[in-house]
Amino acid sequence: MKKNILKISSLLLISIIFACTNSSKNSEIKNSENEVGENEEIIEETMLNYDDFNIAFIMSSRLYLYDVKTDDLIDFDWETDTVFNCVFSDDNQILYYTVSKNSKLIIKKADLSDTKPEISILAHLGKETQEFVTETFGEKSPLYLYNNHLILRCDFSWNEYGFTKFLEYSIENNTQKTLDFNQFAYKYGEYRESNEPNKDYNYIYKKTKELDFSIYEPDAEVSDFYFGGVSKDESKIFFAAVLGWGDYPHGPYIISNIDGSKMKILENTDMATNDMKPIWYGNNLIYISYRFVDDYTKSQQLRYTKADNNESRFIAESVDYYAVKNSD
Predict the structure, then answer these.
(1) More confidently predicted of 11 and 97
(2) Which pLDDT score is estimated for 224?
(3) Which of 146, 218, 247, 297 is the most buried (most CB within 10 A)?
(4) In 3-state terms, what secondary structure has residue 59?
(5) Residue 250, Cβ neighbours under 10 Å: how many?
(6) CA distance 312 to 285
(7) What three-state secondary structure class fits 73?
């Protein structure tokens, strides 16, 4: 069961103190300048350590923080604007995010190193929020952090079936510019994602023959595999199994130990909706699954896999974006 972290009010603490003292017939309540009297208030509160939370996600336009180690979940109510997307800084101390105000995007940052996060506006981008939403699946543009630059994909094109440009914001210089794919590849080439693994994982892919894909189609067969990534200590891998083709290849994500053991299908996932690919936090895989509310509406669930057995665990419903801290 999830634990909500709550601040303890002074009245609650006083009630607890009175209950404890009244339960002992031999105890006496002493009033002095060093002790709590009946008419004194306790002003100390339990303060949150935001460093403990390793996932940020957006649900109903609000920002939430979650800790996969303890299942603690909080509403980041320091931010009251409509939150669009987010990313952690390299040292995990800053959360960069965008908000939509008057249908346009604004970049903000929150310092998570303090118990009272300082929020500040970095830039008004001057572009319509809708320019950062795909027209295929209605997915938000990811927010990336590369070399002290925040990057947003923009300008969707049906000819390209995706975004065609990148908006680049310099945190250091407080400037922004728009890059095409060639300009982006030239400047940030080392950050481009690749579907080609550095090692041969065919021995793991072959073990998928033991899995039951009938939950997708009665006679579903795997025609290809797409490498997803390995955990930082290289003890686990995730990949996609292609079960069919449309405008994009379709099929679920799969997680496995590096020796092929504890292999699990991540049910209700689809590699075609790939703007929010699974992300590792240590040996926990954070990902989105899809639950159909009715024939035309689906809700996105934020989930993670347990490091010890690769079993899937639920975090929250109706999540449309998430970011994960860099793990040690």
Answers:
(1) 97
(2) 92
(3) 146
(4) strand
(5) 17
(6) 9
(7) strand
User: What are the residue ranges spanned by the domains of the chain?
Assistant: 1-46, 78-192, 194-328
Residue 108 has pLDDT above 60, yes or no: yes
Question: Strand, helix or coil at 13?
Answer: helix
Q: Map tokens 């940020």 to a residue.
A: 56
Both tokens assigned to 7: 């601040």
Per the CB < 8 A criterion, the answer to whether 272 and 246 are in contact is yes
The DSSP call for residue 273 is S
Q: Note the pLDDT tens digit of each residue in 150-173.
A: 999 999 988 878 899 999 999 999
Q: Is the pTM of this model over 0.90?
A: no
Contact, 171 vs 147, CB < 8 A? Answer: no
| Helix (H) or strand (E) segment spanning residue 202 | helix 202-205
Rounded CA-CA distance 264/243 in Å is 16
What DSSP element (H or E) covers 286? strand 284-292
Cα gap 79→65, rounded to integer Å: 12
Torsion angle, alpha carbons of 137, 305, 264, 214, to 10: -40
Residue 306 tokens, joined: 């347990």
Please identify which residue in the block is written with the tokens 């690919």. 277
Q: Residue 184, Cβ neighbours under 10 Å: how many?
A: 19
Tokens of 199: 């090692």
Q: With contact defined as beta carbons under 8 Å apart, do 129 and 81 qualify?
A: no
Number of H helices, E strands in the chain: 3, 23
Q: Which of 126, 112, 135 is closest to 48 using CA atoms?
A: 112
CB 213 within 8 A of CB 223: no
Q: What tens digit of pLDDT does each residue of 26-76 get?
A: 443 334 334 333 333 433 345 788 989 999 999 999 999 999 999 999 999
**How many other CB atoms are there within 10 angstroms of residue 129's CB atom?**
20
Nearest to 228 by CA among 171, 165, 169, 271: 271
